[in-house]
């Protein structure tokens, strides 16, 4: 939490949310909200907060619900259009407070990430406007109209001292590691790390800890947390082998000794590490849910057919049963008629049903028909008789033929129902055949994962991969992880452009590719954002790119020093296009017009204009839906969100 807030709440750190403008707020699943933000100098991004679990910026977002929930709608009412003024952690606890100002009115969004967690909106007097989950604890109510109270405070590891730790250990009935984990609000992993660095037996009873052990434990706590205090983070995801495959097991803002032998994937910020660990997993869950729902839709006809077939079997079984009963009634015509006569006379003489039961019981030896009676329903005026093992319900007010006809009518109705079910089965089979034809004709989307997907990229008309950064973080990553000595590096003469690399693979680069890379770097730079229609750029070799500034100079994140001769392209016209690849892969591509026209279809050309990225993305999306006549397919490969990632920063118009 401290590491996360040190990034989100520090105006001097890239990725800070200070002064970010709040857009729409969504609640894709219970317990989770997504706040759309516009961050100055970066563009649109999403802050995901899941109560009791996580909070971070995310590129992996769950789809928004079709009908918005009440909680995000109220948040929109109070904070949409406002600006974030602060992001703070409360007392080293798992609570983040986001300060918002809109129209001079201050509100606070409290994010509780402990236990089951909660998300609570407060006014400037810290009175609760609305909690996501209204709850009442002993001595603490989180409900509308109440003054928000923090949970009981824990000891902070940042304030650890020997005297305090000695007092905590003296009152503990547990071992060292559990005492540190619970009393100092550290949790198991960090408590284990403290014991490891101190060289102290973690299973030793806390009460038996010596003063020397307490001293080294205090020093170990300070050592573990020094990277956070000094803001020297090394965010990474820890991976362990599980069944011969590497699996992500933890995400941490600093290196831990207990993970020293495990493989790690490092990230430029803790936010990005959190998103890769939590956000990616959440998006995979969404994909699994979508696949399951699609499978469920596909199986709807099979389930209907199975139910119809089961119904027909039951209709046929009951039809045979009622026909058999009717036939049995005629077989025992004389006995049943005798019973009906006796019962009818008894009722006419005023005998009660209890008296009739008593008379029939005594007459069983003299009257064989009486022995067939199983039960009498006095309320309905019916008797159940056993006719050679077949039970029949006989109405004493009706004749023998009328009782038999009642069962024939039941059998007749079931026969009609069976015939209707047979026709329904034929309709279902026809519908299944139509669906199969429709599915076979439907376009299929083919996706692959590539290392360059997290950057801006295109393939030149000569087939060379050209990759550019999206922001300072990806500029750094591109140069440090993916730039090779044989590549060519492009940048603009003015600041505010992506570092752009042509991956040569050792081949000679044609002039057409160089010109396309020049147009790419200019179009996706501040030149487009400022509404200009041309700009200057240059290319250099990788060895001319350095992260080491001249003595006394400072180099901010995402910036580099270029030394030596530069190869200039002057007055390069801006202009990009987006199109669709519909071959081995189905995806949106974006870049210079000539490159996109050579490999894409349904190409839309763009120029600097007056519409923001989201509006242009929606316009292009509607064009694709109109052209392909398949909204489902277009949404999979070219939703407005996906298209927006291929567009230049700033505002645009559609040229053609």
Topology diagram in text:
Layout: H1 2-8, E1 21-29, E2 32-39, E3 43-50, E4 54-57, H2 70-79, E5 83-89, E6 95-102, E7 105-112, E8 118-123, E9 128-131, E10 135-137, E11 140-142, H3 162-170, H4 176-183, H5 188-198, H6 211-229, E12 236-242, E13 245-252, E14 263-266, H7 270-298, H8 300-331, H9 333-348, H10 353-362, E15 373-377, E16 382-387, E17 390-395, H11 400-441, E18 456-459, E19 465-468, H12 472-482, E20 488-492, E21 500-503, H13 511-523, H14 526-529, E22 534-540, E23 545-546, E24 561-562, E25 567-573, E26 576-582, E27 586-592, H15 593-599, E28 601-611, H16 613-628, H17 631-638, H18 640-644, E29 652-654
InterPro entries: NFACT_RNA-bd, RQC_Subunit_NEMF, RqcH_archaeal
Organism: Methanococcoides methylutens MM1
Function: Probably part of the ribosome quality control system (RQC). May mediate the addition of alanine residues (Ala tailing) to incompletely synthesized nascent chains from stalled ribosomes, leading to their degradation.
Structure description:
The protein is an alpha+beta fold and 656 residues long. It folds into four domains: 1-147, ibrinogen binding protein from staphylococcus aureus domain (ibrinogen binding protein from staphylococcus aureus fold), CATH 2.30.310; 162-266, Helicase, Ruva Protein, domain 3 (Orthogonal Bundle), CATH 1.10.8; 307-419, no CATH class; 456-654, no CATH class. It contains 18 helices and 29 strands. Strands 18-19-21-20-22-25 form a six-stranded antiparallel β-sheet, with helices on both faces. A five-stranded antiparallel β-sheet has the order 5-6-7-8-9, with helices on one face. A four-stranded antiparallel β-sheet has the order 1-2-3-4. Strand 20 and strand 21 form a beta hairpin. Helix 4 crosses helix 5. It is extended, with a radius of gyration of 38 Å. The two termini are 48 Å apart. The model has no long low-confidence stretch (mean pLDDT 88).
């Amino acid at each position: 939490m401290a590491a996360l807030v040190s990034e989100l709440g520090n105006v001097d750190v890239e990725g800070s949310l200070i002064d970010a403008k709040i857009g729409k707020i969504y609640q894709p699943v219970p317990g989770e909200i997504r706040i759309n933000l516009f961050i100055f100098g970066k563009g649109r991004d999403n802050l995901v907060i899941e109560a009791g679990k996580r909070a971070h910026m995310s590129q992996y977002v769950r789809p928004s619900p079709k009908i918005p929930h009440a909680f995000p709608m109220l948040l929109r009412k109070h904070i949409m259009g406002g600006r974030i003024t602060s992001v703070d952690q409360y007392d080293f606890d798992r609570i983040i407070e986001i300060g918002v100002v809109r129209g001079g009115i201050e509100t606070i969004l409290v994010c509780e990430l402990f236990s089951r967690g909660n998300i609570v909106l407060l006014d400037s007097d810290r009175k609760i406007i609305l909690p996501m989950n209204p709850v009442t604890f002993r001595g603490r109510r989180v409900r509308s109209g109440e003054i928000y109270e923090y949970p009981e405070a824990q000891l902070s590891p940042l304030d650890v001292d020997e005297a305090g730790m000695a007092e905590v250990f003296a009152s503990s009935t547990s071992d060292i590691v559990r005492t540190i984990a619970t009393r100092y609000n550290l949790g198991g992993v960090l408590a284990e790390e403290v014991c490891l660095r101190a060289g102290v037996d973690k299973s030793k009873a806390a009460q038996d800890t010596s003063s020397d052990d307490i001293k080294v434990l205090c020093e170990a706590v300070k050592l573990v947390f020094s990277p956070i205090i000094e803001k020297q983070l090394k965010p990474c995801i820890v991976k362990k082998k599980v069944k011969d495959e590497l699996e992500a097991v933890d995400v941490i803002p600093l290196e831990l000794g207990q993970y020293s032998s495990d493989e790690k994937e490092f990230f430029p910020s803790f936010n990005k590490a959190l998103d890769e660990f939590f956000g990616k997993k959440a998006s995979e869950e969404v994909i699994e849910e979508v696949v399951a729902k699609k499978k469920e839709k596909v199986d709807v006809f099979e389930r209907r057919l199975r139910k119809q077939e089961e119904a027909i079997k039951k209709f046929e079984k009951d039809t045979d049963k009622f026909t058999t009963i009717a036939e049995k009634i005629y077989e025992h015509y004389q006995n049943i008629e005798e019973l009906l006569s006796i019962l009818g006379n008894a009722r006419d003489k005023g005998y009660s049903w209890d008296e009739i039961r008593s008379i029939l019981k005594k007459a069983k030896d003299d009257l064989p028909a009486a022995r067939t009676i199983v039960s009498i329903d006095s309320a309905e005026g019916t008797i159940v008789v056993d006719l050679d093992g077949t039970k029949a319900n006989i109405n004493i007010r009706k004749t023998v033929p009328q009782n038999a006809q009642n069962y024939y009518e039941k059998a007749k109705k079931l026969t009609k129902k069976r015939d209707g079910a047979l026709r329904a089965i034929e309709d279902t089979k026809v519908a299944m055949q139509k669906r199969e034809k429709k599915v076979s004709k439907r376009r299929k989307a083919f996706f692959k994962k590539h290392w360059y997907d997290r950057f801006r990229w295109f393939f030149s008309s000569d087939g060379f991969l050209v990759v550019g950064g999206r922001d300072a973080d990806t500029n750094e990553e591109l140069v440090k992880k993916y730039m090779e000595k044989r590549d060519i590096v492009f940048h603009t003469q003015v600041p505010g452009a992506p570092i752009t690399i042509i991956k040569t693979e050792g081949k000679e680069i044609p002039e057409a590719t160089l010109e396309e890379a020049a147009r790419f770097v200019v179009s996706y730079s501040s030149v487009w954002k400022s509404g200009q229609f041309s700009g200057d750029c240059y290319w250099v070799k990788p060895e001319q790119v350095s992260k080491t500034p001249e003595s006394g100079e400072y180099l901010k994140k995402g910036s580099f020093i270029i030394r030596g001769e530069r190869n200039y392209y002057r007055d390069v016209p801006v202009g990009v296009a987006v199109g669709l690849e519909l071959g081995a892969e189905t995806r949106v591509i974006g870049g210079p017009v000539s490159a996109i026209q050579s490999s894409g279809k349904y190409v839309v050309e763009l120029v600097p204009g007056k519409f923001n990225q989201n509006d242009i993305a929606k316009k292009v999306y509607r064009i694709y839906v109109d052209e392909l006549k398949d909204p489902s397919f277009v949404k999979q490969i070219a939703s407005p969100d996906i298209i927006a990632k291929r567009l230049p920063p700033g505002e645009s118009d559609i040229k053609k």
